[in-house]
Amino acid sequence: MNLASLQADLWTVAPELWLLGVGLLTLLLDLVVPAGRKAAVGLTAVVGLVLALIPTSSMVLWQPRTVLFGTYAVDGFAVFLKIIAIVTTILVILSATDSMGRQTRFEGEFYALLVFTALGLMLMAASTDLILLALSIEYVSLTSYVLAGFLKGNPKSNEAGIKYFLFGATASAVMFYGFSLVYGLTGTTNLYQIAQRLSAAPVPALYLAVALMLAGFGFKISMVPFHQWTPDVYEGAPTPVAAFLSVGSKAAGFAALVRVLVVTLDPSRVNWVLLIAVLSAASMTLGNLLALPQRNIKRMLAYSSISHAGFLLIGVAAFRGDFGTPGVLVYLLGYTFTQLGAFFVATLIGSQLGTDEIPDYAGLARRAPVLALLMAVFMLSLTGLPPTSVFLGKFYVLAAAIDNGLLWLAVVGIINSVISLYYYAGVIRAMYIMPAASEAPLAEPAGLQVALGVTGLGTLIMGIYPQPLIDLARSAAVLLRL
Amino acid sequence: MGELAAFMILSLVTLIPAVVVVTSSNIVRAALSLVPTFLGVTGLYVMLQAEFVAGIQVLIYAGAITVLILFVIMLTEGGTGVRTRQLNDQVPLGAMAAVWLAFVLIVIFTRTGWPTAAGVLPAYNVVAVGNAFLSDYVLIFEVTSVVLLVSLVGAIVIARRED
C-alpha cells in the first residue's frame, strides 16, 4: 500500500480522530475552568460530539470496504452503531452536567472519560481484526470500570467498580483465549481472512473458541449466564454511568458480536444459531423473572436490560433474510432512546429526592406531570406497546424469528413481553395512583430537560413515523461480508 | 528430543512459581514469584526464535512490571501484610471447575488437526516488528497509545483523594 491510499484511508477515520481531539480538548479545558463551573467543560464536549455526527453520518452510504490494511471496516452497519455511540454519549453528558458536580470533584475528567469511551465504542463497532477488537473491548472496559467506581465517597459505587472490574477482567481473559485459538487455527487475525480459511469443515477447537468468545461478548451485552454483574453495577454506579453502560457498551458489544458471528463464523458452518437462540430465550426469561420483585428502579432497569439483550439476540439468531440485521439496528436505536430516558428520569429523581426506590415515585404525576408522563411513555415503550420505538424493534426481531423458522423463539419473546408489562406498569402505578408524600413540585435542571426531551421525542417519533428510520436501517444493514 | 526436554523444563519453570503466586500468604513472595514465571515465558519465546519479544519480556515484565507491583504493595495502606488469605471456602468448587475445564481443553486440543506448517522467519526480528507496527498494524499501534493515555487519566482519578 502506498502513501496516497493511506492518506485517503485517514479520511475514513476522521470521526475517530475528531473525537480524540475533543477528548484531549476536554482534558485541557478542565485544567483552566475553575471548580463550580465545570459544566462548561461538559457542554464543550457535547458540542464536539454533535459536530462529530456530521462526518460520521455522511459515511452511511459509502462503498463498504476495509481500510488501514484491512483492520477497520467502513460499512453502514459500523456507521449506524457509531452514531448510536455518539448520541448516547451526548445525552449522558447532558444528563450528568447537573448532578455530577455535586458528587465528585473530578467532574472534568468524567466528561473526558465519557468522550474517550465513545471513541472506544466506535472502534469496537468497526474493528475487523482480532487484535483491534480485543484492544477496543479492553479500552471500553477500562474506562467503564473507572466510570462505575467514580463516586469514591460512596461505598456502593466502589463496590460497583471493583465488581465490574473482576467480572470484566475474567471475561476478557476467557475471550482472548478464544481469540488465540482462532488465530492458532487460521494463522491470521483479520476477520475476513479467518472467514476464508475456516470455510473447510469445522474442527472441535473452533466450537471451543466460539464458546470462549461468547463469554466475553456475553459479558459486554449482559447475556445470561454472564449477567450477574449487571444489577450490582447499575445500582452502585452513578446513574448517568449506568445509563451509558446499559446502552453504549451494549450496542457496541452487539456490533462486535454480530460482526464476528455473521462475517467470520458463518462461512465455517458452525451451527451457532441454535446456541444463540437458546441463550436469547434464557436471557429474556431470566431477566424478566428477576425483574419482577425489584423495588429499586436501577436494579429493575438492569434486569430489564438483560431481558432486552435477549430480545436483541433474537435478531442476531435470525440474521438470515431481510429482517434480522435491520431489526437489531432498529431495536438498538429505539432501545437507546427509551432506556436512556428511563435512566434520566431516575437520575433526576435520584438527585432531587435522593432515592432510587420505586415506591418513592409515588405521586410523581402531581409533582412533575411532564416527567411522569415521559416516564410512563418510556415504561410502555420498554414493554413494547405501540406506538413507541421499542415496539418497532420487537416487531422487527419477532418477524425475523418467524421468517427464519424460529417460531418457538418468537412465542417466548411475546410471552416475555406480556410478563414485563407487570413490572413496568408498577412504576406507572406508583407515579399515578399512589398518594404523594409531599406536593412540592420538583426542580428540573436544564441539561436533563434537554436530554429527556430528545429521548422522549425519539421514542415517540420512531414509533409514530418509523419509515425514514426503517429505510436508514435497511441501507445501513450492509454488513461487509465476503 | 532436546527441544521437547527444553520445553518441559521451561513449562515447569513457568508453572510452579505461578502456583506460588496464587497460593502464597505472603504478598511480596507472591509478587516476586512472578519473576521466574516471566523468565520461563521468555525461554519459550527464545525457543520460538522471537529474540526481540524475549528481550522485551525480560525488560518489561521481569523488570518493570514486577517492580511496579512491589511499589503498589509498598504504597498501599496495610498492603504489606504477610497473612493474606488467597483461598476461601469455594476452593473445592473452583478446583472441580478448573479440572473439568482442563480435561475438556486437553480432549479438544488433541482431537483437532492444527495447521502446523512452518513459516519463514525474517532475518531480523526487530525490523519485521517495526515494519508490522507501522504498516499492517498501524491503527492498532496508534490506538494502543490512546488506551494508555486514557488508562492513565482513569488511574489518576481512581487514586487521588476525594475531598
Structure report:
The complex is a heterodimer of chains A (482) and B (163). Chain A has a domain at 272-482. In chain A, 76% of the residues lie in helices and 1% in strands. Chain A has 20 helices and two strands. By secondary structure, chain B is mainly α. Chain B folds into two domains: 1-83, NADH-ubiquinone/plastoquinone oxidoreductase chain 6, subunit NuoJ (Four Helix Bundle (Hemerythrin (Met), subunit A), Up-down Bundle); 122-163. Chain B has helices at 2-23, 27-32, 34-47, 51-75, 91-111, 125-134, 138-159.
Assembly context of the chains: heterodimer
Fraction of residues in helix of chain B: over 70%
Q: Count the helices of chain B. How many? A: 7
Mean pLDDT level of chain A: 90
Structural class of chain A: mainly alpha
CATH superfamily of the largest domain in chain B: NADH-ubiquinone/plastoquinone oxidoreductase chain 6, subunit NuoJ
Element pattern of chain B in H and E: HHHHHHH
How big a fraction of the residues of chain A is strand? under 5%
* Most strands sheet of chain B: none
Total strand segments of chain B: 0
- How many helices of chain A? 20
Please describe the biggest sheet of chain A, giving its number of strands, its sense, and whether it closes into a barrel: 2 strands, antiparallel
pLDDT < 50 runs, ≥5 residues of chain B: none
Q: Which CATH first-tier class of the largest domain in chain B would you pick?
A: Mainly Alpha
CATH architecture of the largest domain in chain B: Up-down Bundle
Strand order of the largest sheet of chain A: 1-2
Report how far the terminal alpha carbons of chain A are from each other: 21 Å
Global Rg of chain B:
20 Å
* Most extensive contact: A-B, 45 and 31 residues
Helix coverage percent of residues of chain A?
over 70%
**What gross morphology of chain B would you assign?**
globular
